[in-house]
Amino acid sequence: MRVLIIEDNRDLASDMFDFLESKGHVVDAAGDGVTGLHLAVVNAYDAIVLDLTLPGMDGLTLCRRLREDAGKETPILMVTARDSLEDKIYGLEAGADDYLVKPAELREIEMRLRVLMRRAGERTQRQKVLTVEDLVLDTLTCSVKRSGKSIELPPIPYKILEVLMSRSPQVVSRDDIERAVWGEGRPDSDSLRAHMYMLRELVDKPFEHKLLRTLRGFGYQLAGQDAALE
After folding, report:
1. Global pTM?
2. pLDDT tens digits, 56-81
3. Dist CA 46 CA 228 (whole Å)
4. Domains and CATH numbers, the chain
5. In terms of C-beta density within 10 A (0-12 exposed, 13-18 middle, 19 or more buried), how is residue 97 classed?
6. How far is Cα 96 from Cα 142, in angstroms, rounded to an integer?
7. pLDDT tens, residue by residue, 142-153
């Protein structure tokens, strides 16, 4: 299960991160609402753990924007110190799937995430497979195939490909890709270019039709022939 934690309390976020990783889950984390919303939009997560009181953008606003503006149906578990009935109602009305009051046991957080995953059922399963023409990325198994042929990708090119496929046929800016892949710890200016070169060598070069394109001044696009921007 791939989980995004959006929590500004570093100690709590670290505890959840370490616990979920120890259970075999893939975990990303954001310490503010703006970064959290961005990661939730550009990546395909199985579930999100969301605090309400966040710098930059509060959890209720983030939840509404994720549902209404981005159209994301990723299951959301709100974990917050706000314990009134009104707060719970506001959270669920904003689009949360479950609500848990702090302090919460880490085992219960994971259990509730698993329950949300089961409830999502076939809808969530369909979201795990990204397809652009003959290129298929399965986020559950982290496998990539093109024309039925398996492609082994290193972690960073894989993450870049996932970002581009999840937003295809949109053009994704360099800044958006770097934020989605590296968070706030941005790499040097040549890192993304080097990883894009490797991605092209593995995903595009061996095949007749090219899916990856660079649009100077705008960013990168992964799209089929009909949807490609000239």
Report:
1. 0.55
2. 999 999 999 998 888 888 899 998 88
3. 29
4. 2-124 (3.40.50.2300), 129-222 (1.10.10.10)
5. buried
6. 27
7. 899 999 999 999
